[in-house]
């Protein structure tokens, strides 16, 4: 592992994240890692981490041979995918010789628009996100693999993703990192600069921009999110940073964040509370013990 170009801590992160990927792959008895590429920085970082993990050693970032048969990167453009995404995916794949296929979903997109003509651009985008994930899981089934998530902690906390779409995965090696940290990590991983510097976008519809939709830069958002996570940790009594995206309810009071822009605080706190369901497992009704025992006793 070469010395980090920015901060040694990111080199350490790469080392531990790649070990996590390799260990999870072994424990889940997966034969291949499936990564959906979008042309964005998050999926680029995840694809590179997976490639390094499959080398068996993180000592040489330029070595890629051992990853060829155990990694599959899939680009699933819709009819509305920006042209720059095609260019950036190609640049990433060629730079690192990533195992890659392109699977267009324009036909699904068109069918949805025909059958749901009154749907909004966001609804159509969410549909495409779920189609992409369905196909990624199909590829994982074909290759006895696991789908690797590409959502960072900023997106997960804000609920800035499609439930059962891009938020779905078997493992996630970047879910504890905030968006601004992803940019730094990307440079350490030598991701093409064009991918790092372009405006973050979920690419759900033309000209979409994360920061324009949210109304604030990720730098501003992340500084507040970090404060919220720290406050949550105090309420939870955690000696170390708690599980990413699990925020204590008492940490969601505006009184704690008077040093931040009021509109920013309102937006972030409301999104965290409103989108909590996206970060939870489905709620299963559990009968009282006596009823459950009676039910089990009458099982045929």
UniProtKB/TrEMBL annotation:
This protein's pathway: Cofactor biosynthesis; NAD(+) biosynthesis
One protein family per Pfam: NAD_synthase
Alphabetical list of InterPro entries matching this protein: NAD/GMP_synthase, NAD_synthase, Rossmann-like_a/b/a_fold
Protein's UniProt keywords contain Ligase: yes
Key words of the record: ATP-binding, Ligase, NAD, Nucleotide-binding
Enzyme class: ligase
GO biological process: NAD+ biosynthetic process
Entry-linked Gene3D superfamilies: HUPs
EC number: 6.3.1.5
Gene Ontology annotations for the cellular component aspect, listed alphabetically: cytoplasm
Catalytic activity as recorded in UniProt: deamido-NAD(+) + NH4(+) + ATP = AMP + diphosphate + NAD(+) + H(+)
GO molecular function, one term: ATP binding
Domain NAD/GMP synthase: 14-282
Similarity comment: family membership: Belongs to the NAD synthetase family.
Protein's name in the database: NH(3)-dependent NAD(+) synthetase
Biological source species: Helicobacter canis NCTC 12740
UniProt lineage: Bacteria, Pseudomonadati, Campylobacterota, Epsilonproteobacteria, Campylobacterales
